[in-house]
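Retro notes
What went well: the complex prediction finally ran end to end.
Inputs used:
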Amino acid sequence: VIWMTQSPSLLSASTGDRVTISCRMSQGISSYLAWYQQKPGKAPELLIYAASTLQSGVPSRFSGSGSGTDFTLTISCLQSEDFATYYCQQYYSFPWTFGQGTKVEIK
Amino acid sequence: EVQLVESGGGLVQPGGSLRLSCAASGFTVSSNYMSWVRQAPGKGLEWVSVIYSGGSTYYADSVKGRFTISRDNSKNTLYLQMNSLRAEDTAVYYCARDGDYFDLWGRGTLVTVSS
């Protein structure tokens, strides 16, 4: 099983801030990583796959980087609709696993 | 419209069974990999099971031997048969189109295992 450490678990920020979320793997996964956004009471939505490829329709303020064991999700200019919980997910090997989540809250 | 709609959740006693359904529209279930992912109340996401387009199935260790994933091609519907349910199976269950990452999710159905 590939373990994932996502940090921070809670991030307080203001509209317009640049925020970064980290996801570290217990072993290398090349670029087989996705990022999701989840709002309360809603299903997750895919933001990024292959570590850095933006899903169709996702705003360009979202970006992903990294390979191997260390990955980052960046929101360049936080908007009100971005306050949510974010998860990373590896699909390098079964079982697919998710990070513990990062809640981005209003400061 | 491309969408997934789950149903079949509810309250069940420990040791009981439940079958979840996930009706797809706008695409063909049998041509895609399809997964179930669950989320316990206030917790993170946990992948549960996948069925490949060729019919192969895989399960998380936590449900292996108790849950069975299947599909009905004529109804374009995915299923999850859950037996020997435990309190720790309490969660919202989502079906998702699985291209290794999950690009389409249903709204989820809540399963509560309690006496």
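What we learned: The longest strand of chain B covers residues 18-25.
What to try next: split runs per interface for comparison.
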